[in-house]
Amino acid sequence: MDTDNPVELVPGVWQIRQQLNDEVPLYLHLVVGTEGSALVDGGLPFSLPAVERLMAAAGVPDQDLRFLLNTHAHHDHIGTFAALRERTGARVVADPAAVRWIEDLEVNLREFALHRPDIVSDSPELRAELAPTFGKPCPVDVTMTDGGAVRLGGGLVLEAIQLPGHVVGELGWLERSSRTLLLGDIVTGTSWSFFHGHVLPGQFRQSLHRLRTLTLDEDVQLVCLAHYASRTSHEFLDLLAEVERYLDQVTETIEGALDDMPRSLTEVWRQTCAEVGRIQEFRGLAMVAAHLREAVAAGRARCVGPDLYVAVRSGG
Ligand SMILES: [Zn+2]
Questions:
Q1: How far does residue 257's CA lie from ligand 1's centre (Å)?
Q2: Domain that holds residue 54
Q3: How far apart are CA 107 and CA 110, in angstroms?
Q4: How many Å lie between the centroid of ligand 1 and the Cα of residue 71?
Q5: Does the residue 316 lie in any domain?
Q6: Do 251 and 273 form a contact (C-beta atoms < 8 A)?
Q7: 223: CA distance to ligand 1 center in Å?
Q8: 156 shares a domain with 20
Q9: Burial class (CB in 10 A: 0-12, 13-18, 19+), 210
Q10: How far is the CA of 186 from the centre of ligand 1 (A)?
């Protein structure tokens, strides 16, 4: 896997980039205080050498790694946690809703990728593709919600910010002394060949709005993201607007696929993939199903049978 050299973005905040495939980069971050350090997300199982390079460049010996801070429980954010926790004694900190997936990888795989085996089948090919990206299960030591924080000494404090939407339970981390915001996938990829996905569309929109407000109110100077290069606050606000436009496009495409005649989840999913130009896979399916559920809850669609939906036309 293609890996860059570690860089110190601002004093105490280190980053290393790995290229997961042709289109998806992964950035890992280490925050270094005078009394200990915190790794934000653990990458994939084979990210361990990259984490070691990051720690070496930042001058962090094993015993100084005190926290493994999770943004969310997707496989490319937790892969080295078990090995690092065992070796360094660092404590794993996560959103309460992320715990099950970090501690039980069979549940994680099933609910993440095999949630509708009747539509996207549990095939040997899919298993073979995903199996190496799942590491060992890891106990979560501490759960955190809004207002929680870890102190690293030297004035460095990482505050937890709950950002649901991409998944049910996701945390961002705000380091106030350098005004640095560290994020996982709440700012999703918008232009990959597959839908990066979001399972709570309404909360996704609220979290993007919260991030804009936070960036302005807290005078954030630097934003570090898992799958985008780091950004100044201005660049980040532009990126938020881009993701909001993408969410609008996805919403309009999915709800626009509905009609007076019942359309099935599978039909709407296939049409959405075709119209937005994405391959058909499990992330996009979960996203389309979530949009349909929310359209029904908001009264814009009606469920007229198992996985069957019709549009509710306003004024009609
Ligand atoms: Zn993710």
A1: 26
A2: 2-247
A3: 5
A4: 9
A5: no
A6: no
A7: 17
A8: yes
A9: middle
A10: 8
Going by C-alpha positions, the residue among 196, 202, 188, 217 that lies closest to residue 251 is 202
| CATH at residue 287 | 1.10.10
Task: Express each pLDDT in 183-211 by its tens digit.
Answer: 999 999 999 999 999 999 999 999 999 99
Strand locations in the chain (E) = 2-3, 7-10, 13-19, 25-32, 37-40, 65-69, 91-94, 142-143, 149-153, 156-162, 171-175, 180-182, 222-224, 231-232, 263-264, 301-305, 308-311
CATH of the domain at 32: 3.60.15.10
Interval between CA 259 and ligand 1 midpoint (Å): 32
Mean pLDDT of 15-22: 95
Residues 276 and 237 in one domain: no
Distance 203 CA to ligand 1 centre (A): 15
Cβ(156)–Cβ(170) below 8 Å: no
Taking each helix axis from N to C terminus, what angle separates 233-256 and 265-276, rounded to the nearest 10 degrees?
130
Phi, psi dihedral angles at 208 (to 5 degrees) = -65, -40
- Of the three residues 221, 247, 273, the one that is the final residue of a domain is 247
User: In which element (H, E) is residue 295 found?
Assistant: helix 282-297
pLDDT for 315 equals 64
According to DSSP, residue 121 is labeled -
- Token pair of 11 as six digits: 């004093």
Q: What is the pLDDT of residues 117-167, one digit of tens each?
A: 999 999 999 999 898 999 899 999 999 999 999 999 999 999 999 999 999
Burial environment of residue 61 by CB neighbours within 10 A (0 to 12, 13 to 18, 19 or more)? exposed
Ligand 1 midpoint to CA 166 (Å) = 7
Q: Are residues 287 and 167 in the same domain?
A: no
Ligand 1 centroid–CA 297 distance in Å is: 25
In angstroms, what is the span from residue 185 Cα to ligand 1's centroid?
Answer: 5
